[in-house]
Amino acid sequence: MSKDQSQVRQKDMIARHFDRLAAAPDTGDKTAYTFVPGNLTELLLSFDLLPVLPEINSLQSAMRGKTAEYIALAEKFGHSEDVCTYVKSDIGMMKSGNIGPTGQRLPDPDVLLLSYTGCFTFLKWFELLREEYHCPVAMLHVPYQPDGRVTPSMRDYVVKQLRDEVIPTLERVSGRAYDEDRLKAHLALAAQAEDDLVWVLQSAKHRPSPIDAYFGAVYYVGPIFSAFRGTQAAVEYYRALRSEIDERIREGKGPVTPDGEMGQERFRVVVEGPPNWTSFRQFWKMFSDEGAVAVASTYTKVGGMYDLGFRHDPSRPLETLAEYCLGCYTNLGLPTRINLLAQYIKEYEADGFLINSVKSCNSFSAGQLHIMREVERISGRPGGFIESDLVDPRYFSAANIKNRLESYFQMLEQKRMGGAA
Amino acid sequence: MTRAPDLPALFDRADGLYRDYKLGAVRAWKARTGGLAIGYMPIYIPCELLHAQGVLPVGLMGARDDLEIIKGDAYYQSYICHIPRSTIELGLNGNIDCLDGLIFPAICDVIRNLSGIWQTLFPDKLVRYLDVPQNFSPDIGGRFYRHELETLCAEMAGRGARPYDPEALSASIALYNRLRRLVRDLYALRQEAPWKVPTSELYIMLRATLVLPVEEAIDLLEEYHACVEAADDRQPLDQARVLLTGSFCEQPPIGLIRTLERSGCYIVDDDFVQVHRWIKSDIPVEGDPLNNLVQAFLSDAIASSTRYIDQGVKGAELLDRVRISGAEGVLFCAPSFCDPALLDQPMMVRAVETTKTPWTAFKYSENTGQFQVIREQAGTFADSIKLWSEA
Fold first, then answer.
1. Can you give the C-alpha Rg of chain B in angstroms?
2. Domains of chain B: residue spans and CATH
3. What is the rounded CA–CA span in Å between residue B318 and residue A123?
4. Do A337 and B343 touch (CB under 8 A)?
5. In the beta sheet, which residues pair with residue A113?
6. pLDDT tens per residue, chain B (391 residues)?
7. Which of residues 147-176 of A touch B (CB under 8 A)?
8. Nearest-CA residue of chain A relative to B307?
9. A window 361-400, beta carbon within 8 A of B
């Protein structure tokens, strides 16, 4: 299968980033481990700190078939079988030499930027890593949005932490003074990339959808969710991607799947929850074989709700970072999540919605059965529910999941035929 | 030998309160006073604030093994802990409909998301997710927390509670200081003479206080303290002194606590019903009382697994507790799928191992009904301490 230009570009960006990370002990580059939701990439870049995203490392390890061994190792060290497998995979990887997705050793962190946004486990994760690496932690507590709105108190709390605690820590670690103009420049670039990402995600409103907004979109959000938001490279990547998708729309094409061009679009679905990474291609194929296209997903919003209008605003650098953190998907109350899903179903003219409930992630999963019933009630569209895990292959039961998906799509078909009769 | 005559009656009363899913005491209080009753989930809320506005704070800690969960299971996958299921069951079957609202303190993602479910299931009730700061600087986390508390005050007043009054809050703080002192004294007495204060009994007393007005809770515990001090028919046994940790949210069934005691353990410190022990010492009553509540939260709270440990060393407080309580071993006793406890456990184990303190670990659910395996494990653990411990 030939790769699009954007894919080649992304692969190159990632390779260069990991080369820099691998060389960091020699070059003196400093690194910050941090998380996807509520990431402060522009701020890190303004201090010349290289971001490392342990969640991304875990999912990459899963795609390379390494997580069974990593998780087993972490459990051997006393980590419970009940807890998040991203954490255990990361710890297992570290105990195995910290070899990253490109096969190169990742440097130890100079700082752990603990952006506690939407997920309690993040807090524990970096407490665990702090014991291993003995490096400074910059803690940023982001309040939850139970009522679907950001209050001035929440924003002020985050801004004050950024100004009085996070920035001084990054200054100490990096040896550089805070440079607000530099931060603003990165934020301006972030907003440009965000415009194009939103255009790409919303292209799924076309029929047929030119993209798969769940499986395909995890690649699209890669640069903006990881080390590249706020860079010229990300701006160029999203411009190229947009151009490619625009061409697909003009040609009336559907998404590209792992097996090439997808055939007829039979079902349009909205998907809630993260994907399974250990059997990612197999999982995707279960959809594409049925002609099912994800036209919107919530997982692609964990790193920011850009499609609801948020853009990083360089004129208010710290306030905009605070609002970004507060607005990430898993930081939103369940009523807001329910309404968002119902809104996606309507706007993207979906036939139904599917929830992939992952054992590892209570932030996503606790309450999803309730979400399913409420979204069905509001939207009038049927929901399907499947269970797997993020990176633990023991929890991906291919036959069960395939069975459920086939039954679900048959049900959609019957409803459609019933509706036509 | 004398046995305090009213201890059985006192225990029966407390046990009745603990077992009453329908919150009869709360209903009676509401009928008597016409006040609001607002529930709260574990682990901690500043009950003083509710009391000062004439609201009865009612602690909910899930259910026991005798509540059949039917509706609650329809809300949660198998890999999520049990307490949200039983809470939903109690909500949907009308058992706790006397509550005018429910506060969900920031414990973990499950309880946080339960607040969202509650919002949609009970739209007419006050539903408040109480975010607590993980930044402990007075100017940053303190300011945010104060605003959270002020918002809660306003919401309660909006539902008919008395408006916030600093003098009333100071008086409430003084009352809760008394309650906290009583609980501390009982814990100290248990450490000194665990045979006098069996944990399975103390636990029931503490659970009973969760549904009583603080004034009655104080009376109950004062009476209990007097009873157990006088109960000289309770004689020491050759049991191992253990500290039990990890059970701060979903509670173990009482049968499990009894099983541990019967297997040869004196529980000399634990994480049960932490609301009365969250703040470690008296909160000042002079000055701005709201600020005093905030300051106590920031600088005088226990090192819970739900709290970011910014300054200091993970596990240091646990080691202090082991030392102060004279525990000879540690039981890591967490609910299945409890993120805060289980993610913390490797760090806590490591801390405990630095002092060569023996430990063992097991999990439970609030509805666990079979204790034989735990009995054997805890019994072996206690025997090993008695037989092989260096002490």
1. 20
2. 26-167 (3.40.50.11890)
3. 19
4. no
5. A138
6. 445 559 999 999 999 999 999 999 999 999 999 999 999 999 999 999 999 999 999 999 999 989 999 999 999 999 999 999 999 999 999 999 999 999 999 999 999 999 999 999 999 999 999 999 999 999 999 999 999 999 999 999 999 999 999 999 999 999 999 999 999 999 999 999 999 999 999 999 999 999 999 999 999 999 999 999 999 899 999 999 999 999 999 999 999 999 999 999 999 999 999 999 999 999 999 999 999 999 999 999 999 999 998 777 899 999 999 999 999 999 999 999 999 999 999 999 999 999 999 999 999 999 998 999 999 999 999 999 998 876 5
7. 153-154, 156-157, 160-161, 164-165
8. A123
9. 362-363, 365-370, 374, 387
**What residue type is B372 in one-letter code?**
Q
- The reply to whether residue B109 touches residue A143, judged by beta carbons under 8 angstroms, is no
Q: Give the domains, in start order, of chain A with CATH numbers.
A: 5-176 (3.40.50.11890)
Report yes or no: A382 and A415 within 8 Å, Cβ to Cβ: yes
Calpha distance B94→B88 (Å, rounded): 10
User: Which of B113, B129, B305 is facing A366, going by the closest CB pair?
Assistant: B113
- Cβ separation of A128 and B347 shorter than 8 Å? yes
Residue A4 class from Cβ within 10 Å (0-12 exposed, 13-18 middle, 19+ buried)? middle
Residues from chain B that touch A120, judged by Cβ atoms under 8 A, are 108-109, 112, 306, 339-340
C-alpha A196/C-alpha A376 separation (Å) is 31
Residues contacting residue B243 through CB under 8 Å, at least 6 positions apart: B267, B268, B269, B270, B318, B321, B322, B325, B327, B329, B330, B331
Q: How many angstroms separate the CA of residue A141 from the nearest CA in chain B?
A: 6
Contact B76 A119 (CB under 8 A): no
Helix ranges (H only) for B250-338 are 254-262, 289-299, 316-325
Q: Nearest-CA distance from A78 to chain B in Å? A: 6
Residues 6+ apart with CB under 8 A from A54: A33, A35, A86, A90, A125, A129
- Residue to substitute from A84, A137, A144, A397, interface B, most B β-carbons within 10 A: A144
Asked if B334 and B345 count as a contact pair (C-beta separation under 8 A), the reply is: yes
Note which residues in 293-322 of chain A have CB less than 8 A from chain B. none
Nearest to A351 by CA among A270, A271, A259: A270
